[in-house]
Design a protein that fits this description.
alpha+beta; Uridine Diphospho-n-acetylenolpyruvylglucosamine Reductase, domain 2; Uridine Diphospho-n-acetylenolpyruvylglucosamine Reductase, domain 3; Enolase-like, domain 1; five-stranded antiparallel sheet; 12 helices; globular; binds flavin-adenine dinucleotide
Length: 264
């Protein structure tokens, strides 16, 4: 780890001021990704600004029929939240299968979204529920937030404040986990929205994407049978030591069928 200045502000205004003054300031949420990055000397920030003391970035509220989740809310808090479980059980179910208890106890929704690991779960719900990412500068539509592998629409020094999820008619998430990390080899989030079905695949490609063939099939027949004979194109899917693109394509069908069946 290289030396850096450590700050623990207690308000968003203080975070913004520290970022503006720092030569190369970086935010720290739960540290699940960023601390290993620092330890491996893959980053050399001048200042690390710890968000854990900023109360206004934490918490879960019911808003406009949906749910608003502060960026510093942990996966465990989301999974256990009475509000999330009641209003969007599919999202609570997703948070409950992020990593293991240690990861869920420290990892945050804001950190996970800013990092945008291709195997991360939340992009499924952000796109699948047409969520809105609220930053200290603007609102970003969930559909526009993810721009590539480990890339998002966030600008340098832009801070995620909260994420607003509208309530769907129904939603469910299923994933085939990497048994070691529990990250998604393939995840499928299926949502039944007023505007029609959404099916978002995570883990399989460089970033989360909508499986439009499945959405079209579900629009006329919302049953797992409707997706059973579909096959995703493996051409642009990830192939690595964990799974080939062909295997991931196969899993997309299997996992999506299970997610649809879970909707009941
Ligand atoms: C062993 C292991 C297993 C995991 N399994 C899963 C899994 O199954 N599914 C899954 O989805 N994830 C998984 N994760 C990821 C984990 O859930 C964390 O959310 C993720 O690592 C980000 O960590 P963090 O929230 O602690 O953020 P940090 O590591 O502190 O920050 C990550 C990045 O986000 C930036 N950042 C943080 N907060 C903000 C903010 N409010 N605004 C703007 N930028 C911000 C930081 O500057 C940094 O660049 C796993 C992680 C580990 C270590």
């Amino acid at each position: 780890m290289y030396a850096f200045n450590y700050h623990k502000p207690t308000s968003l205004a203080e975070v913004q001021s520290l970022l503006a003054k720092a030569e190369d300031g970086k935010l720290l949420a739960g540290g699940h990704t960023y601390i290993p990055t620092l330890k491996q000397r893959l980053a050399q920030p001048s200042d690390v600004i710890d968000l854990s003391g900023v109360a206004e970035l934490k918490g879960i509220e019911e808003e406009a029929g949906g749910v608003t989740i502060g960026a510093m809310t942990t996966h465990g808090q989301i999974a256990r939240s009475e509000i999330v479980r009641r209003v969007i059980p599919g999202l609570a179910g997703m948070a409950a299968v992020v990593g293991d208890p240690q990861v869920r106890n420290r990892g945050t929704m804001g950190g996970a979204l800013a990092n945008n690991d291709p195997a991360s779960d939340y992009p499924g719900a952000v796109i699948g529920l047409a969520a809105t990412i609220r930053t200290d500068k603007r609102e970003i539509a969930g559909d526009d937030f993810i721009t590539g592998m480990f890339e998002t629409a966030l600008e340098e020094d832009e801070i995620i404040r909260a994420i607003h999820f509208p309530r769907p008619k129904r939603s469910a998430y299923e994933k085939f986990r990497n048994p070691a990390s529990r990250y998604a080899l393939v995840g499928s989030f299926v949502a039944d929205l007023e505007s029609g079905p959404r099916v978002v695949i995570t883990g399989a490609g460089p970033c989360a994407f909508r499986w439009t063939d499945a959405e079209q099939a579900l629009a006329s027949n919302f049953t797992s049978d409707a997706v059973a004979s579909l096959r995703a194109d493996p051409t642009d899917l990830n192939s690595d030591l964990h799974a080939s693109a062909e295997y991931r394509a196969h899993l997309i069908t299997v996992i999506t069928k299970r997610a649809v069946a879970k909707l009941g």
